[in-house]
Amino acid sequence: MAQDLFATGGSPQLSIGYIDERIPFATVDGVFADPGAVRAAALALPYAPGTEYYPGRVARFPDGDRSLAAFIQKVAGLVTREYLPRLPPLPGGMRLSALRGIDTDFAITETPPEQLNEGQRQPHIDAVPVFGLVYLNEEPRGGTLFFKPRDEIRTDANASAYPSHDHERFEVCGHIEGRFNRLAIYPGFIFHSGEIDAGWIGTEARFASPRLTQRIMFHF
Q: Which structural domains are found in the chain, ordered by start?
């Protein structure tokens, strides 16, 4: 395994966007110097089922990897400098200012729509107020969708699929494109879901070319 597997790219591009025109998210394109090597190393990890809300499997890198620790430290600095000052108070009035800790793992989305449980068919909020993803897919595997409750429930929507524009109780109010080698930082307290297209998730492509992300959880 490469000694500096998680080295960052030489000219990463930071951008700021907004969910529902008010809540910021940040993206960094070109985050890894060698994203193909990161993907290969991550896919070689031993995966286990995720929580009941995650439609796939998760794995962790062995503890003590210096390259991964250095990457996480850089991401912490980015969030502290560029994201937290732009973030409005949380629901309830609390402002986020200092990170207490960061956790990271890798996740593969592979559950076909007909096998989703009820919780996986709904947008969700995270256990942490700020969440990060690195999209590690050269083939189109979708980004992240953000939602707000609809004024009226739709009776013509597909209630048995991944959350999408057709959801019966939520409407899409934001989107992060899942570009290869893009880091996204976003508010975990806004309803969201992976952008999963039935065109590949229901076929063998979910195993031959799986949707892989690195998940980064920010604790305050």
A: 13-219 (2.60.120.620)
